[in-house]
Design goal:
Blueprint (H helix, E strand, L loop, with lengths): L8 H6 L3 H18 L19 H25 L5
Main location: endoplasmic reticulum
Organism: Deinandra increscens subsp. villosa
Membrane topology: Single-pass membrane protein
C-alpha cells in the first residue's frame, strides 16, 4: 500500500530531515577535527589559571569562618569557660 502525499519519488530522495542534517554536520565537523589533530590552537583549550569560586565569594567565606570562630572564642572567654 502506497500513500501519495504529493511528492514525487525524485523529490523524496532530496527531502532530508532536520535530525539527518544535524547528524551530517556533526560528522563533517568530526572529520575536520580528525585532520587537524595535534594542531589545536591555544584558545580552544580550557584555562587552568581560573578559580571555580570568585575572589569576593572566597573572601566572604573566609570572613564568616574566621569571624565566627573569633566570636566563639570571645564568648567562651567572657563566660568563664565551656558550659555543659
Amino acid at each position: 500500500m502506497s500513500f501519495n502525499i504529493g511528492i514525487s519519488p525524485l523529490e523524496s530522495r532530496n527531502l532530508v530531515t532536520a535530525s539527518k542534517r544535524l547528524a551530517d554536520r556533526k560528522v563533517e565537523r568530526f572529520e575536520k577535527n580528525i585532520k587537524k589533530r595535534g594542531s589545536v590552537p591555544e584558545t580552544s583549550t580550557k584555562k587552568k589559571d581560573s578559580y571555580p569560586v570568585g575572589p569576593i565569594v572566597l573572601g566572604f567565606f573566609i570572613f564568616v569562618v574566621i569571624g565566627s570562630s573569633l566570636f566563639q572564642i570571645i564568648r567562651t572567654a567572657t563566660s568563664g569557660g565551656m558550659l555543659a
